[in-house]
Amino acid sequence: MRVSVIIAHDERRGDSSLKECVESVKAQGCAEIIVANRGNKSEARNAAAKEAAGEILVFFDDDVVLRKHCIEELLEPFSDEKVAIVGGVNIAFPEADFREKIGGALLASTVTMFRSAARYTPRGNIRETDESEIILCNMAIRKDVFFKAGGFPLDCIPCEENVLINNVQKLGYKVIYNPFAIVFHDRPRVFVPYFKKIFGYGKGRGIMLRKRHGGPKMLFKPGKKLAYYIIGAAGHYVSYLCGVLYGLVRGK
After folding, report:
1. Nearest Cα to 21, choosing from 54, 56, 52, 64?
2. Which residue, of 8, 99, 139, 223, has the fewest CB within 10 Å?
3. What number of other Cβ atoms are within 10 A of residue 129's Cβ?
4. How far lies 156's CA from each of 152, 159, 205, 210, 212, in Å?
5. Which pLDDT tens digit goes with each residue over 46-101?
């Protein structure tokens, strides 16, 4: 199958990271690479998709570097004709500094990110999933389905991939998570850059809810096992601190 790689380029970052990204894509043998930089990212990606010659569109951001076999892993599930989207994982660069590593640990934790932690660290095996585990900086989609689903919305950033994925699933197609398709990506450093990033995610989800593009999956459905874990952990610390205070005041 013919593949077109679309790299969303933020010109404010300069060309050094873009060059490294392009080189890592070329190393995996992709013939068509389109740099999308016209208008906002959704507009740029939609325009690039119209130009693309491939049956499969693979989307990366300009600040990622592909790990070996990433594109191959993204393409493998498309042997099933009902699969329309395959998403991989983005992990921190090995040379990330201390504050980036803390930001990365928070993003990769199910305590803070629930199911969406799978976007930031490999979790489990290849499986069918939904928008909560897929991220746009490492995602592939069938070109014909992309346009059937309306492409990326222009009014729901930064959750444009979530809306697209929901629309694709409404058409009856499968969405696949592949933890073996991996790119390296910067992490927001704690505290202010990290909080701004999370605020942006929350804002995007709020826009989705207001425009009825999807439900609050990532916020309110952590699953029974995780809910018990969180309640148990909270109770653990409350019980321990209460014991310390009791011991200080009245213990014998």
Report:
1. 64
2. 223
3. 21
4. 9, 6, 8, 10, 11
5. 999 999 999 999 999 999 999 999 999 999 999 999 999 999 999 999 999 999 99
The CA distance from 64 to 138, in Å, is 9
Residue 248 to residues 234, 235, 239, 244, Cα–Cα distance (Å) = 21, 20, 14, 6
Give tens-digit pLDDT for 104-126: 999 999 888 889 999 999 999 99
Q: Single out the residue of 195, 138, 141 nearest to residue 164, CA to CA.
A: 141
Q: Coil, strand or helix: which one is 174?
A: strand
Q: Which amino acid is at 41?
A: K
Max CA distance (Å), the chain: 78
